[in-house]
Amino acid sequence: MRTVRGKVGCGRVVRRPAAAWAAVLVLLAGVAPSLAARPALAAPGCFGGKPAPAPRATGDQWAQRWLDPRRLHRLGTARTVRVAVLDSGVDSSHRQLAKAVDRGWDLVADEAGGTIDCVGHGTAVASLIAARPDGDASLVGVAPEARIIPIRVSENATGSTRYRDVTPGRLAAGIRRAIALKADVIHVSFAVGSGSAGLRSAVADAVRRQIVVVAAVGDDTVGETYPAAYPGVLGVGAVDQSGQRWTDSGSGPHMDLMAPGVNLVAAARVDGHVAIGGTAAAAALVSGAAALVRGNHPKWTAAQVAEHLLATADGTPGGAYSVDYGYGSVNPYRALAEPIGTPVPSPSPKPMPAAAVRPSPEPGMPATTRRALLWAGGVGLATALVAVGYAAAVALLRHRRRVSG
Questions:
Q1: How far apart are the first and last CA of the chain?
Q2: What top-level class would CATH report for the domain 3-20+30-398?
Q3: Which of 100, 184, 282, 400 has its CA 20 to 30 Å from the CA of residue 306?
């Protein structure tokens, strides 16, 4: 998503020929090309119809290697977890999403549904969370047994009106609809430059109901964005293949976690795959991780789920905590596999001590190698990390920065 001077946009979605996937290194800059410009098929609800199926991506892909979702699935399941995705809708006809998407709500048409996606962004984001495995396809979601609740909040994708209909009021309505549809996790792809009493109230209501709220901090943003800046929300930024903060990732005191957000393989409208990037994509990976933790610990509060993700994050160049990297890069494997302590409140807000965080060695190396090195430090370090991390995380989520609106 992009938030500049109060205007809102979304992450970039790019179609590529099948032969080009292996050579893709950098996501194209600028506004995503119009997907409707491709040869169209009949598609009620979208002007110009749907595009023809995109090429299928197979083989190695850096973010999939980094998070290694297929290995995650041996440790936990999100079968009973419902994840609401506030975006442009989700195309439930895609073969990797057909069995994952429930009936949601379309705020554009003000009716039940949400399974129309005229932009392609919501489909891509949902697939990063819950795409089912499909043979040799590169893509598999972080939590492929989770259920997706599509909340369609916008369809404007081009020109000067790009995502202008995404307002604090629209996001508040989407969050309240997600609550009504019994979401366990709410993913918000959009960031707005100013909050509102209504949006703050909707977020607070979700938190009170023990719903984990994950929001992108925005692309090319300066200062706090909403709903990421509200108390109880996990604000997510993006890192690249080297583990460095993505150049266009927003930053600020509302930053909590990082995740891969550059050149990710995701589901295209209809079928096939596209490349997607941005903090919305990164937030989707965190939402998937939250779904796995919630599935493994159904009696935990939303704060406990969030705290555990913070406590088990990999170290980043930002150190123990920074406004550029938050508490580090999400590591779903550690969140599922490491010793679990009982979260305890901290008497006062303070950053996690640097000694409690082990920097992730060579972030770009295969995930199994990174994890072997992380585990080499022994159970003592892991236990200390969780204990200290919980205390700091509770303080962070209970005493978030002062916000306007």
A1: 21
A2: alpha beta
A3: 100
| Tens of pLDDT, residues 209-258 | 999 999 999 998 888 999 999 999 999 999 999 999 999 999 999 999 99
Contacts of 28 (CB under 8 A, 6+ apart): 12, 14
Question: Which residues are CB-contacts of 269 (< 8 A; sequence separation ≥ 6)?
Answer: 35, 50, 51, 54, 91, 94, 117, 120, 123
Lookup: tokens for 225: 């964005």
Alpha helices of 146-278 — where are they, by DSSP H?
A: 168-180, 197-208
User: Rounded CA gap, 145 and 80, in Å?
Assistant: 8
Q: Specify the residue for token string 């596209």.
A: 274
pTM recorded for the entire structure: 0.78
Separation CA 157–CA 216 (nearest Å): 18
DSSP summary character for residue 274? E
| E strand spans, 217-347 | 233-239, 257-260, 264-267, 273-277
Between helices 379-398 and 302-311, what is the axis angle to 10°? 130
Q: Could you tell me the residue ranges of all domains in the chain?
A: 3-20+30-398
